[in-house]
Design brief:
72 residues, 3 helices, mainly alpha, single chain
């Protein structure tokens, strides 16, 4: 794996870890692909925001989730 791929993978794993800590399992598993009215997503799916924004947006989503659970 390249460094970029490794960073993306660890960021996505961090997103799912935060989701599992914050939500119950059914919502934690589907949150990334559900429509979201949150300030970062504007009614779109977080996964679409991550794809469109690339690594910087993936890291923003991870920070957002960490802040929701009181980690940032």
């Amino acid at each position: 794996m390249t460094n970029d791929q490794l960073l993306r993978l660890t960021a996505v794993i961090g997103i799912y870890k935060s989701l599992e800590l914050y939500f119950s399992e059914p919502l934690a598993r589907s949150w990334f692909t559900r429509l979201n009215a949150g300030p970062l997503f504007g009614g779109h799916r977080p996964v679409d925001a991550a794809i469109e924004g690339g690594l910087p947006q993936i890291l923003v989503i991870r920070t957002y989730l960490d802040a929701l659970r009181g980690g940032a």
